[in-house]
Design a protein that fits this description.
The protein has a domain at 64-161 and 264-299: 3-Layer(aba) Sandwich (D-Maltodextrin-Binding Protein, domain 2), CATH 3.40.190.10. The chain has eight helices and 16 strands. The chain has helices at 99-111, 125-129, 147-150, 195-204, 216-224, 235-245, 276-288, 291-299; strands at residues 2-5, 26-28, 40-42, 75-79, 118-122, 138-139, 153-155, 160-162, 164-169, 188-191, 211-213, 230-234, 249-254, 263-265, 268-270, 305-308. Helix 1 links the parallel strand 4 and strand 5. It is elongated and about 60 Å long. The termini are close together.
Amino acid sequence: MRKLTLLVGVLSLVVAACGGGDAADTTVATPETTPETTTADTTAAPDTTAPGTTEATVGDECAVENLPLKTPGQLTVATGEPAFEPWVVDDDPTNGQGFESAVVYAMAEKMGFTADQVVWIRTGFDEAIAPGPKEFDINVQQYSITEERDEVVDFSVPYYVTQQALVAYGDSEIVNATSLEDLKGYALGAQIGTTSLDYIEEVIQPDTPPAVYDTNADAKSALDAGQIDAIVFDLPTAYYITAVEMPDASIVGALPASEEQADKFGMLMENDSPLKPCIDRALEELRAEGTLDALAEEWLTQEGDIPVLSQ
């Protein structure tokens, strides 16, 4: 098992190269403004730098008054119920606190919206990915961009890229694991519809099918009850949970990720959304000026060394 300093910043990533790659090393950064919130990057993946070329709309087509919004003059943004830190603070996305809340308000301002023109609603995680019309303009709750999802919904360019991590209590033998092979004999769990669950099923491939939960809260309750040995979360969530919600638990290790397996978070829209070029342009401008990196450092950073399990 290699030990690398997890730098939770945002590294560049070329999305165009979507096939395979070597297992990514992980580095962690030092938190400056929110010690209890955390995140990490993989040297091969984590980054706010999205790949590809943005087909930005020109002229006035991206002016607020010309945007094809669900409600004219209002950006309707959906998030989870509840919304968890470090993505949203105090389950209140309107306060601009937490990485995703802060990114939404920064993007909205870049597009010409005032703060009071951003209106939040709540949706379930799975229901938002389902095909069909949406009640929101964008949905932000750590949606990983995958080919399967992209067939029925649209995604913005990535606003953050991370990897998966394994969380367990110290009295479990699983904390001695140093490779993915070592995990196969344990009972693992994850939230339904997530790339964390996909990673267990497709990469770890444990001897026993993973336990599937409606929410991360349900998964944590199962771990508390001893029904499973460990949970897979995205790394920023794993940092926060072990620092604040489950201080007796720890991160067993970051899970190796190829470029293809890295989690690229995108803002979700209904399929063929005409908003996508304008959303993408605003995010690319925030990336170019360093705002996405600064927000990631503020909300998704923690100092520390964690092991990276070998492939």
